[in-house]
Amino acid sequence: GAMRHLPYFCRGEVVKGFGRGSTELGIPTANFSEQVVESFPSDIPTGIYYGWACVGNGDVHKMVLSIGWNPFYKNIKKSVETHIIHTFKEDFYGEILSIVITGYIRPEKNFDSLDALISAIQEDIEEAKRQLDLPEHLKLKEDNFFHLPEGKIVNNR
Length: 157
Ligand code: ADP
Ligand code: MG
Known about the structure:
Shape: globular
CATH topology: Elongation Factor Tu (Ef-tu), domain 3
GO molecular function: ATP binding; metal ion binding; riboflavin kinase activity
Cofactor: Zn(2+)
Largest sheet: 6 strands, antiparallel, barrel
Radius of gyration: 15 Å
Order of helices and strands: EHEHEEEEHH
Number of strands: 6
Oligomer: single chain
Number of helices: 4
Bound molecules: adenosine-5'-diphosphate, magnesium ion
Catalytic activity: riboflavin + ATP = FMN + ADP + H(+)
Strand content: 25-35%
Strand order of the largest sheet: 1-2-5-4-3-6
Pathway: Cofactor biosynthesis; FMN biosynthesis; FMN from riboflavin (ATP route): step 1/1
CATH architecture: Beta Barrel
EC number: 2.7.1.26
CATH class: Mainly Beta
């Protein structure tokens, strides 16, 4: 399943999605480009993951991530979207996002209402925060991956 791909290191540009994360859910998700998504292992399960994220050469923050099917492409292409558990002053489209995925929470699900979806995501965020404080996940926050020279793009090292 998911575990054999983890930890998974990934770096790429933040691109525009449909703006649904912020407007509908109040939870912005930084989308990776199609090219970065295609560099993911094809057999990595869809679902909700957690790990560490850093924009440019900024601080490393906790994150939750969804690997899912992109309805815009009639669900034939995956999307990979990172919600960083931090309040940013501004958008960061076009910047380089570095992430390490360290754990898996759950598969993708359908929800009966927007409220149900939002509370599931809130629970995912709480679960991610707890898990990331454990030593096996916390140690990846300090990984050299986050301290490489700016602009150097390396997928999964
Ligand atoms: P889009 O559909 O374009 O991805 P979203 O509504 O999902 O739009 O918002 C994502 C954008 O919001 C990111 O690309 C980033 O520039 C910005 N943003 C601001 N704060 C955060 C955050 N904490 N986590 C992720 N993205 C954030
Ligand atoms: Mg988004």
